[in-house]
Amino acid sequence: MLISHVIFNGKLIPESEAQLSINDLAIVRGYGIFDYFKTVAGVPIFLEDNLNRFQQSANLMDLPVNYSQTELKSLIDTLMRANAMPDSGIKLLLTGGYSADGYSISEPNLIISQHPLKRNITLEREGLKLLPFDYHRPFSQVKSIDYVMGIHALKAAKSQGADDVVYVQDGLISECPRANFFLISPEGKLLSPADDVLQGITRKKILELASTEIDVEVRDINLQDLKCASEAFISSTTKNITPVTSVLGYKEFAPQAGPITKRLQRLLQNLIYKNG
């Protein structure tokens, strides 16, 4: 049986040996940041973008990253060679550190972990249902480890027959707990919420790809936009482009991906999987 390894503060160790003290701010206060990317056939996807966002999140949360990007890439390569998982998800986790008073930021702990990741093509084809949920993430530009509301909201979604939630506050739609949100307008424009959402890497690539094919608008999106939209989808590292078939109480879409969503799926597929 292959032993899974992690990188713990720069050292490769078996995952079973990785331990955090109970006074780490990630444990006592939920204070920390992370980033996440995938590998396809042993190749990291959009690694540079993820490392840049990791550094940005750390800066915004006053957490020093005591490794250069070159050093981080070397550590990731070491982990990938040790684990031999060609199709995987890799997480970089930076904690608030061991805090003497349980509140002040200390020297962060860096943990890089890897797990097998299989693409869910069925979900990408058939889509999912979303429940509107009244919330807006604080520190929306930060990829924080705080998922309290997302986990709580998922229970509400499941109870009403939805697969997940989409955050809506004061009539504005922002994002899902683990994905960015998009609409296709009646005129065929791609709409994505503006700056006050997590700057998803897959989202970034979709906007770049789409701008060569159709009109793109990055702006505030409201419930009226949703009601008038012809298609909707979400995006993330694990979900790629996944169609939204319903936003409960507001809009029913086609039971599978619409024509523009399918077009964008093909473009993203070619970029990530190289026609594979």
Care to describe what's here?
It is a single chain. The longest helix is centred in the N-terminal third of the chain and has 15 residues, at 69-83. The chain folds into two domains: 5-118, Aminotransferase class 4, branched-chain amino acid transferase, N-terminal domain (D-amino Acid Aminotransferase, Chain A, domain 1, 2-Layer Sandwich), CATH 3.30.470.10; 122-273, D-amino Acid Aminotransferase, subunit A, domain 2 (D-amino Acid Aminotransferase, Chain A, domain 2, Alpha-Beta Barrel), CATH 3.20.10. The model has no long low-confidence stretch (mean pLDDT 96). Helices cover 30% and strands 29% of the residues. It is α+β, with helices and mostly antiparallel strands and 276 residues long. The strands form two sheets. Strands 7, 8, 9, 10, 11, 12, 13, 14, 15, 16 and 17 form an eleven-stranded mixed sheet that branches. A six-stranded antiparallel sheet has the order 2-1-6-5-3-4. The chain has helices spanning 25-28, 47-60, 69-83, 121-126, 148-159, 201-210, 223-228, 259-273; strands spanning 5-8, 11-14, 32-40, 43-44, 88-95, 110-116, 128-134, 164-169, 172-173, 175-176, 179-184, 190-192, 216-218, 221-222, 231-236, 240-247, 251-252.
Quick structural overview:
With 276 residues, the protein is an alpha+beta fold.
Radius of gyration computed on alpha carbons: 19 Å
Number-wise, the strands total 17
Share of helical residues: 25-40%
Domain unit count: 2
Shape label: globular
Number of helices: 8
Distance between the termini: 29 Å
Query: Kindly state the mean pLDDT as a whole number?
Result: 96
The CATH class of the largest domain, by name, is: Alpha Beta
CATH superfamily descriptor of the largest domain: D-amino Acid Aminotransferase, subunit A, domain 2
Give the helices and strands as they follow along the chain: EEHEEHHEEHEHEEEEEHEEHEEEH
> Biggest β-sheet: count, sense, barrel?
11 strands, mixed
Might you state the CATH topology name of the largest domain? Answer: D-amino Acid Aminotransferase, Chain A, domain 2
